[in-house]
Fold this sequence. Notes:
By secondary structure, this protein is of the alpha/beta class. It has two domains: 1-31, no CATH class; 44-220 and 237-367, Vaccinia Virus protein VP39 (Rossmann fold). Helix content is 28%, strand content 15%.
Amino acid sequence: MKAAAEELGYDSAEEYLMALHELHQNGQIHVPPKNAPAPDPETQRPQLYFERADGEIYHGDSAKLMADELGEESVDLIVTSPPFGLLKEKDYGNKDADAYLNWFDQFASGFRRVLKESGSLVIDIGGAWKRGRPVRSLYHFELLIRLCRAFDFKLAQEFYWWNPAKLPLPAEWVNIRRIRVRDSVNCLWWLSKTPYPKASNKRVLQPYKEDMTKLFERGSYNTGERSGGHKPGETSFLNEHGGAIPHNLISLANTSSNTAYHKYCREKNHPIHPARFPSGIPAFFIRMLTDKGDTVFDPFAGSCMTGEVAEQMGREWICCDLEEEYLEGALGRFLEDDDSLFPSYEPSRSKPYEAVPPFLSILPEDEAPLPEDGGASRPSN
Ligand SMILES: C[S@@+](CC[C@H](N)C(=O)[O-])C[C@H]1O[C@@H](n2cnc3c(N)ncnc32)[C@H](O)[C@@H]1O
């Protein structure tokens, strides 16, 4: 490990381990739990691991599951968060991103095979920093382009998930050298096989803001031209439509640590999955893009959050993960065969998070000079 650390420019094995830990915490690499069985993708078919009336969990490689087990055009929605690219610094090019894309191809063709024509594919994918440099990888954009160009998916819409509770990492660029800002947005690529997958934004309306509610009460609206040249019609904004159309920005912290799932994992000594997404992510897309009774599939299911939410929302579901230890913990979401365990889905927080406009005046400019070398050297204090 010492030699590997030195080769990559770290001063010690400890520093190397810390960097790995940081990536792991960030969900940018996947570290298999100790003693986890490693299914041989060549020989081992995914096994049905758990079943209940509306859901199935498979253990094994989901590429194989999609190629051999799931029916063609049998899934209405794939919503998933794949392991993020493990990116090593290279002298040139983007080899690791390429390796990631090549690895992903088997899943992309599986998605095409199992998804219905009316279905949608939603991929939650975080960005990544190149190792040792304040430079971002392009791999998640390249993945999107590959899915569209090589696998003929349509980009129905790109969403962004803003996690206001994300830590200011990597500390070196954000906290120490102060040359980058917090990276707190994940991309959510919503793709489909046709330009018209089944969808309705009426399923995900939000409460109107207070001024809008007042406007409805007043019954009048300034119909003058907006800054972009658009002139709203007299009536279109005045009609109460039951809620506001959401933006393609989902603001949701990912801080839950005391759910029944956590309790179960702690009691049974199973690892708590380190890169879970919050229930609101699958919930939003399940509601907007599927009907009750439709089938939702998560091929990188981890703790099976997608399965739990799909169950709560009355959809059928299939989850698959390579690591049995994660599935052992996931069972805590489903073991009780009691429907009270699955009350209808409720968001955990209804208050909005505050997003502030650019705020430029806290420190006078001359008290915050730009480093002459762009931050190439560390500040002395
Ligand atoms: C980012 S995590 C997903 C976490 C999940 N969204 C949750 O909320 O718990 C990615 C998962 O993909 C799994 N994985 C990696 N390769 C896989 C494969 N070929 N087939 C199935 N699962 C795989 C990993 O074991 C890991 O649990």
